[in-house]
Design goal:
It is a single chain. The protein is α+β, with helices and mostly antiparallel strands. The chain is 18% helix and 27% strand. Strands 1, 2, 5, 6, 10, 11 and 12 form a seven-stranded mixed sheet that branches. Strands 7-8-9 form a three-stranded antiparallel sheet. Strand 8 and strand 9 form a beta hairpin. Helix 2 runs antiparallel to helix 3. The longest helix is centred in the first third of the chain and has 17 residues. It is globular and about 50 Å long. The N terminus is likely disordered.
């Protein structure tokens, strides 16, 4: 019995130190605390203070049925640590920032890897069921990990129980500073 307790405590310590939990249950899913390790796991770099060649914003909405899931602020970003991964959030608006010294494609899969939340065609984190995706209002049928993050696009992910009709979230009203 003692050995099992030690094993569970060691696993919990690993989860706390890495800032990622696996397996994931239902939301909310917190932001990771080990920014550099999560960025590296997503193939991203710290670009704090670098001259930028790419600066785009994509809005992400996730719903569990009709219940919104919060995308945490400061995924891949910390002003106090002077850290900014190429993909990051600043707040809980759902706006994903892509800021890079080189122009290249960044994907939704990289963002979820950095967040530490599993994403696939049949699940988001611990949510399993019918996963319906819209990109700028058009249905997307491929693996959501492959979605390229583009400026002022909206990505909506709705997870429903099998047979339940998904409802596309309302269009995001971009604040004027993003136009």
């Amino acid at each position: 019995m003692r050995r099992a307790t030690v094993t569970v405590m060691a696993a919990a310590l690993v989860v706390l130190l890495t800032g990622c939990s696996a397996p994931q249950g239902a939301p909310p899913w917190p932001r990771p605390t080990d920014l550099a390790a999560r960025a590296e796991a997503a193939g991203l770099h710290d670009v704090w203070g670098q001259r930028l060649a790419e600066h785009i914003h994509t809005h992400l909405t996730i719903t569990d049925g009709d219940d919104p899931v919060v995308v945490p602020g400061n995924i891949g970003h910390s002003e106090s640590r002077k850290f900014a991964a190429e993909i990051h959030t600043h707040d809980t608006s759902g706006i994903i920032h892509v800021e890079s010294p080189e122009r290249r494609q960044f994907t939704l899969g990289q963002f979820f890897d950095e967040w530490g939340v599993s994403l696939g065609p049949d699940h988001v984190g611990g949510l399993h069921g019918d996963v319906t995706i819209w990109v700028d209002g058009d249905r997307f049928y491929a693996n959501p990990r492959s979605i390229t993050l583009r400026d002022l696009e909206q990505v909506d992910i709705v997870v429903t129980t099998f047979g339940q009709a998904p409802h596309r979230p309302a269009a995001f009203d971009w604040p004027p500073q993003y136009h």
